[in-house]
Amino acid sequence: GNRVAKCVSGNYLFIVLRHYILAWAYLEVTTSGRYNDSIQAYAAGAVEADLTSQVQLALLQLKGLEDGYNNQLSFPTGPFTFNPFGFLLFQMGGDVEDLEGALNKSSRSRTLGSGSCSAFIKLLPGNKDLLVSHDTWSNYQSMLRILKKYMFSYHLSPTDSDPIPGGTQAFSSYPGSIYSGDDFYILSSGLVTMETTIGNSNPSLWKFVQPTGAVMEWLRNIVANRLAANGKEWAEIFSKHNSGTYNNQWMIVDYKHFTPGMTETKEQLFTVLEQIPGLVVHTDKTQQLLQKSYWSSYNIPFYEEVFNASGYRELVEQFGPVFSIDMNPRAQIFKRNQSHVTDMDSMVRLMRFNNFKQDPLSRCEGCDPPGNGENTISARSDLNPANGTYPFGALKQRSHGGIDMKVTSYGQWREFGFLAVSGPTWDQVPVFQWSSSPYPDLMHMGHPDKWAFQPVQVTWST
């Protein structure tokens, strides 16, 4: 059903439209430029509970969310604090995974070799369109989802009246989170930004994770999305104060530099950034995208410097090509199937692809049975036999896999539109159903039992 909620507090009014369709909830939050940025940020957080300057604004928004949830709205006029195990922890999920390693936690929440998202960018034949897509991989308990659109009339700084380039953002997200976390964003700056996690397997790098002089990744992500007008600016802003946590490969597509049928673009269309503790590398990869017609991302560093420094060379020596940039199963499947992508529908099929029992590229060296539900574009690790033999943890039976798909195009980004599918893939494999899965007792409050949902065209009311 549909629900329109209004939040009036003092002199500011927000209208939020929420509706629930095909396993996605929708949320739109708009702020008014008549009020200063601090009031806007705090009130934006308060509305969502019912349902440097930019870092401060993000934290104010989070404070508003926490206070609204607790029904204790009171705009902070001085320093403020958070419940460290409340909404702040929601934002820090990715950062915490790497903090566990940096602080020598004996049992890590991130499984060795675990995929955490697939991403794919495709220039269609004749450069008639540029499609940008992303699959989130996560545990199945995290499938309570919200598609959000923020329209914030923030300014570049307290003394600069110019609006921020990324004031309007559409993204896939979760209850209680003020950013994506997947990550996948469409921005009013013309940028589409997304990432897949590469992690860090080199313990000697954890010394670069320090409590001072660093900003957590989730905040640098928010600030770069708001302030950057192009891919180079995004990378430069994000690179400052590297925390060495939530270590990802980021892809920044700038649709302002794409025209259907184009032949002239030399650079600025596509930027790739990779972060690990103590190191951030970013370059313009427009020419590679134009020459190959695609870019695929599958949780393995592209830059050799990052690959070597983060311990992937040793992982290849220990476990084989599953950890290599060229011979990883997803690398090979993307290379084999990319030419089949000719429109949005075929892109959805690629990003939902999982035929692990028949696909020779999904075979796992040292696995019994040989086909593995993790070794494909949209994982279904729940379908791996519990009594199988596997060389490392990510290949075992787990409540884990691809939990969504998002794809946008040149024709859709201006309206912040995209296609989205919620839930594990069921194109070539059985539908995921909690009650008949190996995990009926895992908490999944608010979830449907059966996840047989079709793609939905995401549109917004404003």
TrEMBL record:
PANTHER family: PHOSPHOLIPASE B-LIKE 2-RELATED, PHOSPHOLIPASE B-RELATED
Name this polypeptide is given: Phospholipase B-like
Gene for this chain: PLBD2
Domain of life assignment: Eukaryota
Entry keyword set: Glycoprotein, Hydrolase, Lipid degradation, Lipid metabolism, Signal
Enzyme superclass (EC): hydrolase
Source organism: Esox lucius (Northern pike)
GO biological process: phospholipid catabolic process
EC number: 3.1.1.-
Gene Ontology molecular-function annotations: phospholipase activity
